């Protein structure tokens, strides 16, 4: 009989995986920051860093995805050195992760990872705009919400497709025989 | 030969995930999510347009000696108003969504020469008579910035 991989006590495995995904998310965040925006709209970005969270959700589990997200947002906020940026990304990222985890766990058959990712992107954008309105105190920003929601569909789809390919590729890297 | 790999909570059977989320890149449920988001966006746009229409109802605010003596929607109707100020009376006219100072008890008549005002944020100030006429948007905020 074949031993389960990862082993039953797989805390070290989880710690290393979470660390790797946090690092991946940080690198993707920095790379994305260097790419000039395609659309001249604030908030309209791919959200490449969210890739790490989605992969954590698929390959590790909902709590691990939440851990990856919180750590990535905190460290990313320190890297950028902007408190408002940290507040925005942490709140929006956490809300998106919670929605994605809930959908992934509660509706496992109905949605593909693309649908989960789109729901996450929509939640992310909506939360971010809500927190921005709260921080800036300018309610007129709410007229921007429908456009941010529409943008979230293609970006969420893209992240979902890439995350699926990556998760499958990562799945294949698991050694067949681990004693 | 069947090859089963367990990766975290994910089972991969012969390279294909057991979880349907990974079997294909899309699922029927995704369409529901996308349609829901589209419907929500359309609803928000329509509601936003209606909302913006409501916002464009402007108010004219008149104060004398630092106290607001009149707040009134800036409609198409015409009327004239006499406001007692510090030095005497100010006469203003509201007509066709605009306001102007017709005459005021001041030596320089700068307020009269300001002419008609109609947009949010605009104001007529008669300093000697301490009368201020302002146009405000119903809600305050977006209209003032946008226009």
Q: Topology as H/E string of chain B?
A: EEEHHEEEEEHEEH
State the CATH topology of the domain at 55-138 in chain B. Answer: mini-chromosome maintenance (MCM) complex, domain 2
**What is the CATH level 1 assignment of chain A?**
Mainly Alpha
Number of helical runs of chain B?
Answer: 4
What is the averaged pLDDT score of chain B?
Answer: 79
CATH architecture assignment name of the domain at 55-138 in chain B? Sandwich
Regions with little confidence, pLDDT below 50 for 5+ residues of chain A: 173-179
Major beta sheet summary of chain A: none
Subunit organisation of the chains:
heterodimer
Supply the number of structural domains of chain A: 1
- Radius of gyration of chain A in whole Å, from Cα? 17 Å
As a percent range, the share of helical residues of chain A equals over 70%
Helix/strand class of chain B: alpha+beta
Proportion in helices of chain B: 25-40%
Q: Would you give an account of this structure?
A:
The complex is a heterodimer of chains A (179) and B (147). Chain A has 179 residues and is mainly α. In chain A, helix 2 packs antiparallel against helix 3. The N and C termini of chain A lie close together (10 Å). The model of chain A is unreliable at 173-179 (pLDDT under 50). The longest helix of chain A has 29 residues, at 145-173. Chain A has a single domain, classed as Arp2/3 complex 21 kDa subunit ARPC3. Chain A has six helices and no strands. Chain B is rod-shaped and about 100 Å long. In chain B, strands 5-4-10-9 form a four-stranded antiparallel beta sheet. In chain B, strands 1-2-3 form a three-stranded antiparallel beta sheet. In chain B, strands 6-7-8 form a three-stranded antiparallel beta sheet. Chain B has a domain at 55-138: Sandwich (mini-chromosome maintenance (MCM) complex, domain 2), CATH 2.60.320.10. The N and C termini of chain B lie far apart (71 Å). Chain B has four helices and ten strands. Chain B is α+β, with helices and mostly antiparallel strands and 147 residues long. The interface between A and B is large, with 46 and 41 residues.
